[in-house]
Design a protein that fits this description.
The complex is a heterotrimer. Chain A is α/β, with parallel strands linked by helices. Chain A has eleven helices and eleven strands. In chain A, the strands form two sheets. Chain A has a seven-stranded mixed sheet, with helices on both faces. A four-stranded antiparallel sheet of chain A has the order 5-4-11-10, with no helix packed on it. In chain A, 48% of the residues are buried. Classes of the chains: A alpha/beta, B alpha/beta, C alpha/beta. Chains in contact: A-B, A-C, B-C. One iron/sulfur cluster binds next to helix 8 of chain C.
């Protein structure tokens, strides 16, 4: 990987360069919660001053710029017995600034499902390849357990990655595209001091995480399949699906078809869904494979921490803790995993 | 100043130019495309089920389309949805495929109202198949309950077409009532083939019914098995295959010689929507055909 | 227009007003670009002007509004006799709606407050289903035109329609709304039926549950959450009874 050092003033120039050229998405403060904590979201920005790179976390993950909540897959025009189909992929280039390591790791996991060898998704690939990603290092967010699931560092999946060294940024370059864009502003080669400062920051960050035992989860989930822990938490679950909506890695969906009122055309719309909804596994005739909250909640953890490991040798969860933060009922991965570990120990 | 980023046009990718063929598990990227297929014939089977004969419109695509018994296709009616349906015809049959569809909801409801000549979309084939090649030189039990005859018909036809490859062949079929029997016009033909033992049973007879009355396991009890030289394929509702498999297991047939086809909600057939997951296994990719040992090991399977 | 060789039905639809604001009916005339197509798909027979309901010139009866008077009960029973499909349109018809609020008070007092010294005959507000059997309920205050269109589409092709099973939160999240609980407000989103695209939380007022409860709502936990966040019992109860959709819940 190539490294460069970018002064703070040059960084502003760099962002303005992007803003003049393309759609830019960045963390932006959208309000404060009841305790006075600022709330952030990744949103389109028009000026450098709208961007707040010191954000702790965002309410929503950035996945929706790759997997929109609703996406038109195709439209069809009808002609009595036949029909004609049109498909459009999104190709407009876009830049996302300020993704944290967990969110970039989440994209890498989505790549495995959606851009792998087996039935890759053209919709996803088109968005992914047309998105320029600038990541940034940061101190752990409250509740985050990305280190435990190996998602606190990221070595690819981005174009540029920034580490804040107070008066300058240490920039890791991971693509030719990133290299070329960076050449438009003044940078310099890192010195020994830059390298030392960079490593210090990395060490400081790495040292702040709380430990959470997750490596035995695939096995544990099987052993604790009938555990009381699931019922205890599921009794609280509202089946609202908010956890999956804000999660950077949940990718499952449903399809909604819309026919125009004059029966001349239809749209096939993909809508991100959640396994917490009652009808997620319901089939025609009314049989439901997961009729109760307990099996549904358990299934979410099963998919995140066991199923994905089985398929790709790593959990789907990147430990961002957004699901725990958003849950009105206080259901969160650290407590559930903690409970499972305790029960296992006993 | 030139633009910073050159747009990436996925439709210009080489994989997009390749002909659509779902049997290629490669980096084929236009998996959102369907084979436009016309309904060439509709054959009512019962009040609830109809057999649809579908022909892929494009000649080259039709030539390339091939499947194995037990696999399914996603049938799309634009504007109403997309559903998984097992292929009911013989894999050796080129030209058109047959789907036996029960009226159950929106898409199946629309399909039941369509006319000959209507065009629908097909994607596939998807999923695992019954390993007929592995079954050569053995006795074969083909057991179906209710709508289970739809997915079982492909292996039945496949076995009949290659009859010399197998020893004894038993086809056992059970439904609730006589008027629910599927493909009853074919029993006569299957029965006349010497050396195929076809038995049909219903749970509740009516005035015209002269055959046996009871459960499918009653038919099984009458068959002398050589368990270690037998393969079984069981298609039907979970309660039915559970009973049948338990019976066969007691008779000594190893669990990895029994195959069942599982049903789950599906929206993609390609391991993307997660709706078909059993525990953490994709029914559309690792199934729908599983051996019974695997089913026993799947959490929340039955 | 035919599709795949299928001829759609063109049902005759009678629209009947009871006690409500007619907002739902207005909603049907809304979205101008699709109104002609909508009226092409069904034949609307307006019964507002006609006092008699004995004409059996309709297959589908759309009932708008809640039932609050004796003559309304008689009229509704008459309509039921003729309609093959009776549809309750809007929250008033489905649950009694806002009209139901008066049930919580002394009726005579309400009467006096509203009509002064010339009280009108009034009964406790009833939902349509409390008087006759209902084949289909389309809740919403007002109803969502797009949803009505979709239901009509399913009706003319004669295939079943299913309402969303998910609660309002789902669609609320999908429009990037900051949860109003975070801002210290009450919201019925987690237990209210979705499909409306969550306009109220986005507008900052939280959901009032105009579409009734979601499929399998976890009311117990919801009450606990609201309590833990410091909302008063009265406040929660008022919210739950606003449209009358949560009336049958324990
Ligand atoms: C591998 C497989 C093979 C099948 N083979 C056959 C067959 O040969 N013949 C036959 O009649 N039926 C078969 N089915 C069942 C058939 O898919 C459902 O009856 C059908 O999806 C119902 O769709 P609908 O739109 O009419 O029902 P609705 O209730 O309106 O369903 C809405 C949507 O839910 C999903 N869905 C509902 N039920 C099922 C289900 N049971 N399985 C999968 N998805 C479902 C579909 O995406 C459907 O579009 C098979 C199912 C699977 C999984
Ligand atoms: S775990 Fe929490 S956020 Fe997720 S569905 Fe249940 S209540 Fe909603
Ligand atoms: S499951 Fe929760 S902690 Fe894990 S990635 Fe998703 S939102 Fe983050
Ligand atoms: S955990 Fe549940 S919501 Fe998330 S991707 Fe898996 S099935 Fe979907
Ligand atoms: S504002 Fe209401 S509907 Fe939206 S997420 Fe919060 S509780 Fe749910
Ligand atoms: S958010 Fe609630 S009150 Fe508002 S329209 Fe939707 S269901 Fe009705
Ligand atoms: S059908 Fe979509 S993942 Fe299996």
């Amino acid at each position: 990987m190539l490294f460069k050092v970018l002064g703070k003033k040059e960084f502003t120039t760099f962002i303005e360069l992007l803003l003049n050229d393309t759609e830019v998405i960045a963390p932006k403060q959208v309000g404060v919660d009841t305790s006075g904590k600022p709330l952030h979201q990744y949103l389109p920005v028009q000026a450098f001053t709208e961007i707040d790179l010191s954000y702790e976390t965002t309410e929503y993950s950035a996945k929706t710029y790759f997997l929109p909540f609703r996406e038109n897959l195709s439209t069809c025009s009808f002609l009595d017995m036949v029909w004609d189909r049109q498909i459009k992929y999104r190709v407009q280039p876009r830049a996302i600034i300020g993704l944290h390591a967990c969110d970039i790791n989440a994209l890498l996991k989505l790549d495995k499902v959606l851009a792998g060898d087996r039935f890759p998704s053209p919709y996803y690939i088109s968005r992914r390849k047309n998105t320029f990603i600038v990541g940034i290092d940061h101190d752990p967010c409250e509740g985050g357990f990305c280190q435990a699931v190996g998602a606190d560092v990221v070595t690819h999946g981005f174009d540029l990655y920034l580490t804040d060294l107070e008066d300058r940024y240490f920039v890791a370059i991971n693509s030719e595209r990133g290299f070329n864009v960076l050449q438009r502003v003044k940078t310099r080669e890192p010195t020994a001091r830059d390298n030392n400062d960079y490593l210090d920051v990395r060490r400081r960050i790495a040292g702040q995480f709380k430990p959470l035992e997750v490596h035995n989860l695939p096995n544990l989930m099987d052993i604790e399949f009938e555990s009381k822990v699931w019922k205890k938490w599921a009794d609280k679950c509202l089946s609202c699906g908010s956890c999956a909506m804000v999660c950077p890695t949940c990718y499952c969906y449903g399809i909604e078809e819309r026919v125009s009122m004059d029966n001349a055309e239809s749209a096939k719309v993909k809508q991100l869904y959640s396994c917490q909804f009652l009808d997620f596994a319901m089939v025609a005739g009314g049989h439901n494979f997961r009729p109760d909250r307990e099996t549904r909640l358990k299934y979410r953890y099963y998919h995140q921490h066991r199923g994905f490991v089985e398929a790709y040798e790593e959990p789907l969860c990147v430990g961002c803790y957004r699901c725990g933060r958003v849950c009105l009922a206080g259901i969160n991965p650290t407590d559930i995993i903690g409970d499972l570990q305790t029960e296992y120990q006993e | 100043m030139t633009s910073l980023f050159r747009p990436y046009y996925i439709i210009q990718e080489s994989e997009m130019a390749q002909p659509l063929d779902y049997n290629r598990r490669s980096r084929l990227k236009h998996v959102d495309q369907v084979f436009r297929s016309e309904i060439i014939n509709i054959i009512p089977l019962t009040d609830m089920e109809k057999l649809f004969q579908l022909r892929i419109l494009d000649g080259a695509e039709r030539e390339r389309f091939s499947f194995l018994p037990g696999q399914f296709v996603m049938v799309e009616v634009p504007g109403y949805g997309e559903i998984p349906i097992s292929i009911s015809s013989s894999p050796s049959h080129k030209g058109y495929i047959e789907l036996c569809i029960r009226r159950a909801g929106v898409v199946t409801g629309i399909l039941h109202k369509t006319r000959r000549g209507a065009v629908v979309g097909l994607r596939g084939p998807f999923g695992t198949h019954f390993p007929i090649e592995r079954m050569r030189g053995n006795h074969i039990l083909l057991i179906a309950g209710g709508l289970g005859l739809a997915p079982l018909r492909a292996p039945i036809l496949n076995v009949i077409e290659n009859r010399t490859d197998f020893h004894d062949v038993h086809i056992l079929y059970g439904t609730r009532q006589p008027d629910m029997l599927l493909f009853n016009y074919q029993y006569e033909e299957w029965n006349r083939i010497s050396d195929i033992n076809l038995k049909v049973i219903v749970e509740q007879g009516d005035e015209s019914w002269t055959g046996p009355v009871g459960l499918i396991t009653d038919l099984l009890k009458k068959i002398r098995l050589e368990p270690l030289e037998t393969y079984a394929i069981i298609c039907g509702p979970p309660v039915m295959f559970k009973f049948v498999c338990a019976h066969l297991q007691r008779e000594g047939i190893p669990m990895d010689r029994m195959f069942v086809s599982l049903e789950r909600r599906m929206h993609c057939g390609m391991g993307k929507c997660c709706r078909c997951n059993i525990g953490s296994t994709y029914t559309c990719l690792s199934g729908p055909v599983f051996d019974y040992w695997t089913v026993m090991n799947l959490k929340e399977a039955i | 227009m035919k599709y795949l060789g299928i001829e759609p039905k063109r049902p005759k639809v009678g629209v009947f007003d009871f006690t409500g604001c007619e907002g739902c009916e207005l909603q049907l005339a809304n979205k101008e670009e699709t109104v002609p197509a909508f009226l092409q798909a069904i034949e609307v027979v307006d019964f507002r002007e006609i006092s008699s309901t004995s004409s059996d010139d309709y297959e589908v009866a759309l009932i708008e509004g809640a039932i609050t008077r004796d003559d309304e009960i008689r009229r509704l029973k008459e309509i039921r006799k003729h309609a093959k499909l009776l549809v309750a349109l809007g929250s008033c018809a489905c649950f009694g709606g806002v009209n139901r609020l008066k049930n919580g008070y002394d009726l005579d007092a309400v009467n006096q407050e509203v009509y002064g010294t010339e009280p009108k005959e009034t009964l406790p507000t009833q939902a349509v289903k409390e008087v006759v059997s209902v084949d289909l309920e389309i809740p919403g205050c007002p109803v969502d035109k797009a949803e009505v269109e979709r239901i009509v589409q399913h009706l003319i092709w004669d295939v079943p329609y299913q309402f969303p099973a998910y609660p309002v939160c789902f669609e609320c999240k999908q429009r990037y709304t900051t949860c109003v609980f975070e801002l210290g407000q009450l919201c019925l989103g987690p237990i209210a039926r979705g499909g409306c695209h969550a306009p109220c939380p986005a507008g900052g007022s939280g959901c009032w549950g105009c579409r009734g409860p979601a499929a399998d709502p976890n009311l117990e936990e919801f009450l606990q959450i609201a309590k833990d966040r410091g909302f008063k019992k009265r406040e929660i109860k008022e919210r739950l009874s606003f449209y009358g959709g949560f009336e049958d819940m324990p």
